[in-house]
Amino acid sequence: MRTPILAGNWKMYKTVSEALDFVKAVKDPLGEVKGVEKVVCAPFVSLAPLADALRGTGIKLGAQNMHWEDQGAFTGEVSPAMLKGLCDYVIIGHSERRQLFGETDDSVHKKIQAALAHGLTPIVCVGESLAQNQAGETERFVSMQVGAALGTLTVEQALSLAIAYEPIWAIGTGLAATAEDANRIIGGVVRATLARCYDAETAARIRILYGGSVNVKNVEELMRQPEIDGGLVGGASLKPDDYITLVKVTAASKGPG
User: Which residue in the list 94, 96, 109, 128 is annotated as catalytic?
Assistant: First the structure.
């Protein structure tokens, strides 16, 4: 059974004090929630204080990006060696990074390799634009992204990451893919591509999340889908009450029975 992940991507929101207030509000209500990995992906400046605040809570910490080199003359970048010991997870290849900061399939693959080498769990983002979706290119494009991201990874490495299918047209727009469509793409495209790259057994073990305007109103319908193994959530993860609800609904929807 694949343990679901409910990861909040805070993007460029929350000061350090606001981040600590958030943790204070959610740690007790989520302390008894089992069967789902709870992850907060915060800005770099908050990672060290959050690592201390989250210790012993069962809530894991993630970064939103990283460079693939351990060190060097890369002003403004953060390396996997710097994240090791602070984080459990790191988001790689988010569409905002690809669109706004020029990240490519090649850089995404390098970052995945570097993250795994330092014991970090990558959450690798894939997803099509609205134009690609409307042109019927979703399957081809998403499959290509998955294959390019994994590249030369071994089975063991592939089993150590998670993939987030995030249609670009649904991120921050209030438009979400229907639960059925999300399930179809995740199972019929993302997991099918993994099976071609490796084998069906390996593909069945890799966790695949859905992201793109996930909120407290649609989370249950999404998490009831058999191929969806949790969510990568943006705006709805910023409010403590909403994040608590998202985690609890995910745990209930993906739990036994």
Answer: 94
